[in-house]
Design a protein that fits this description.
alpha/beta, seven-stranded mixed sheet, 9 helices, about 45% helix
Length: about 240
């Protein structure tokens, strides 16, 4: 599956997306790329199911189509973004710098026009601009995969973007049992049973309603704290 993913990424960049762009000359390159990335990720997820590696269930998936939003998710495993984007025909992503250096991924993230996670006001404004244009953004507030003991402290980027754009936060809680591809977990440590992924799409959250403070810095902190509490309650429910 790792080999298929790498070869598939190179094929998207070298063959599929250029061919699709030639057939749709009026469509922006990044939107064409994102649509075919979604199809490729969906095929990858379905192949894993067909091989008996995993089963994926999405609860309230229809909420993902409720207009532009900041889709925020916890990050327990390496392929969370694959399973999530597989259900989003259009999705801009905030991508960490390692992806831009990866020989299999850098062409994909470049063609898709993903946003590099360099931080700062420029990142917030670029994401807010895309949301105001009616696009959807995917972001993992932990910034990296969750630790074995639970969630990492959330970063404030999602809150700043939500406050700047007025776009809703759309939480997606991801659960994986038994756990695979986690932080500090060997990629080859695969259990001898099918892995069950559950993605639960929550109701939209309004950042301004979550912020109890008028100043921007305190508002972002309040929103981030409320968002972390929401996901912690979801994780506790999964454990129970």
């Amino acid at each position: 599956m790792f080999a298929i993913f790498g070869v598939g990424a190179l094929a998207l960049v070298g063959l599929v997306i250029p061919f699709a762009r030639a057939l749709e000359p009026g469509t922006p390159r990044d939107l064409v790329a994102q649509r075919f990335i979604q199809r490729g990720f969906r095929a990858f997820a379905e192949l894993g199911e067909a091989l008996g590696l995993w089963a994926v269930a999405t609860q309230r998936a229809e909420r993902l189509a409720n207009g532009p939003a900041i889709v925020v998710a916890n990050h327990p495993t390496l392929i969370d973004v694959v399973l999530l984007i597989a259900q989003l025909p259009q999705a801009d992503c905030v991508v960490k710098s390692a992806a831009w250096r990866n020989p299999f991924l850098r062409g994909v993230v470049r063609l898709a026009g993903y946003v590099p996670n360099h931080g700062g006001p420029e990142l917030v404004e670029e994401c807010a601009r895309r949301l105001r244009a009616g696009r959807t953004l995917v972001l993992f507030p932990e910034g990296s995969r969750s630790s074995a003991g639970g969630l990492r402290p959330f970063k404030r980027g999602a809150a700043h973007i939500a406050l700047a754009s007025g776009a809703p936060l759309r939480p997606v809680s991801i659960d994986c049992r038994p756990r695979i591809l986690g932080k500090h977990q060997a990629w080859w440590a695969i259990p001898g049973e099918r892995v069950h992924y559950t993605l639960r799409v929550g109701a939209d959250l309004a950042a301004r309603a979550l912020a109890a403070e008028p100043s921007d810095s305190l508002a972002a902190r309040r929103v981030t704290e409320a968002l972390q509490r929401h996901f912690e309650s979801e994780v506790r429910a999964d454990v129970a």
